[in-house]
Amino acid sequence: xxxxxxxxxxxxxxxxxxxxxxxxxxxxxxxxxxxxxxxxxxxxxxxxxxxxxxxxxxxxxxxxxxxxxxxxxxxxxxxxxxxxxxxxxxxxxxxxxxxxxxxxxxxxxxxxxxxxxxxxxxxxxxxxxxxxxxxxxxxxxxxxxxxxxxxxxxxxxxxxxxxxxxxxxxxxxxxxxxxxxxxxxxxxxxxxxxxxxxxxxxxxxxxxxxxxxxxxxxxxxxxxxxxxxxxxxxxxxxxxxxxxxxxxxxxxxxxxxxxxx
Amino acid sequence: xxxxxxxxxxxxxxxxxxxxxxxxxxxxxxxxxxxxxxxxxxxxxxxxxxxxxxxxxxxxxxxxxxxxxxxxxxxxxxxxxxxxxxxxxxxxxxxxxxxxxxxxxxxxxxxxxxxxxxxxxxxxxxxxxxxxxxxxxxxxxxxxxxxxxxxxxxxxxxxxxxxxxxxxxxxxxxxxxxxxxxxxxxxxxxxxxxxxxxxxxxxxxxxxxxxxxxxxxxxxxxxxxxxxxxxxxxxxxxxxxxxxxxxxxxxxxxxxxxxxxxx
Lengths: 261, 263
Description:
The complex is a heterodimer. Chain A has helices at about 5-30, 30-50, 55-75, 80-105, 110-115, 125-155, 155-160, 165-185, 190-205, 210-235, 240-260. By secondary structure, chain A is an all-alpha fold. The longest helix of chain A has 30 residues, at about 125-155. Chain B is of the alpha/beta class. Chain B has eight helices and eleven strands. Chain B has a six-stranded mixed beta sheet with strand order 5-6-7-3-8-9, with helices on both faces. Chain B has a three-stranded antiparallel beta sheet with strand order 2-1-4, covered by helices on one side. In chain B, helix 3 crosses helix 4. The longest helix of chain B is centred in the middle third of the chain and has 18 residues, at about 160-180.
């Protein structure tokens, strides 16, 4: 196997391992649109990174976290519904990102790569970076698992029972922001949420416990990465979208199985 | 306003001069109440009278505009919310749901489930259980915490009348077994009277308070609820159902309770 393919595969697996459990929480908490909004702001993060000349992965995390916190604060003020609020924030962040990028004539930016992913351009360093993020995120998730599960079922009940609701919620948002920064390179800003949501949704009919669902989502995610990469080589299709379509096919198979049973 | 409260030297919970405003609208005005050890206190009042808001302030879920809530230090609180909607996308069995409140030995889970009469559904996915079973499961989750204070928000909601009697009886048994205090919200004015030590009649302010027989004779109570308490439609079955749904021939017991609570 070619080196670039191996790196692409490893990076893809690294993202799928995180997307599995985090994606299951996203669909339990009905935060799909929130994830979408966060990933759109990632482009602004990239633009700022290029502007001030630091690693765009850092700026993406910082910008996503800032957005996550401002959404939480604004939501408590009422007035606008959260989906309207998310829509406003996500699209203005995406547009702002595109505008800032257009000003940078000195740097040639691979916009399509950012929007739809460029997994074949993954470097050795990227793979190491993804691996260390994997370890950090999975460890954190392990420690907040029970409280996160409790507040995904009901926040008020969890709070009365002494679960640190605000803290857990914040840590969870940090984790999502981190995953977005990592996944950007693989499937691109516009397709990140699909990698979070589709494997998790596909895992639902075959899972009997929360942990099983997270695990199956991871397995389905890695399978999608393998199939997507293979298909992309076979038929010369764009890699990011091919991974998403592979996940969708697995989702449809799981749904059909559930209906037939 | 009558004041027939039992003086208790060390209340487990006391609320003083509590007021709550939301969006400029007054929800609660100058609420004073206390709850003694092993006491069952029921909040009654019409829709929008602020019962749930008061409970939410006491639980610390919303903060009061003014006034104070004092809970005894390190008080273990068990809370049974009015209803809980669990996303169908979450694969969760009843026993797993119960353990979300904190780690407990499996033996204790079995114990609590049989206390509330729901042992048979321990491994059922929680989305498949009925409304009445959900009430019992929520109660079980509160009990797993070995509460010193049990807060129940309309515990018998959506349960038929025989089920309501059984549930109220269970609540009294729980008080005796756990030695806990119980604060409960009730929509119903009749069956609950047999199950409570003291009643607080709420309509944004406290209208009247006291033991059930005193409150039901209070003019403020009649003013608040009109003639509803005499217009109760009730029919009697010649049997009742146990917690497990088995039929028990105890019509006389049911009738007796009805008479008793009508004074």
